[in-house]
């Protein structure tokens, strides 16, 4: 149901901490568990790695899958929360049954990651 542009804007908003824009896209039907084929990253893991605790918790409240591996980042939401030490997110993920380990996933690399990491 979501267009790539809507998802991209929501993903960027999640990484930037723009809760109002994230909520707008969620209410508009953008899939919080979609991983765009250009990025192979999930909004939840993107928000966590950007240190956006309130956005990550919001995405979980709105149905983000706590078990979904972000292929680009080669980690689960729980692994991401532990990496950047977002303890409230880690606790919520554990409450939702998230596991510490995930299947091995090769990280994808693109020029886009440079933009994402710099803008976070």
Automatic annotation (TrEMBL):
Domain of life: Bacteria
InterPro entries (UniProt xref): Ankyrin_rpt-contain_sf
Name of the protein described by the UniProt record: Ankyrin repeat domain-containing protein
């Amino acid at each position: 149901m979501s267009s790539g542009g809507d998802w991209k804007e929501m993903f960027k908003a999640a990484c930037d901490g723009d809760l109002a824009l994230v909520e707008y896209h969620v209410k508009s039907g953008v899939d919080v568990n979609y991983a765009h084929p250009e990025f192979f990253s999930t909004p939840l893991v993107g928000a966590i790695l950007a240190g956006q605790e309130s956005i990550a918790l919001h995405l979980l409240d709105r149905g983000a899958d706590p078990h979904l591996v972000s292929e680009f980042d080669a980690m689960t939401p729980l692994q991401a929360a532990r990496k950047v030490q977002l303890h409230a997110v880690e606790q919520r993920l554990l409450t939702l049954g998230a596991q510490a380990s995930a299947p091995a996933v090769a990280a994808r690399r693109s020029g886009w990651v440079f933009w994402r990491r710099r803008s976070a």
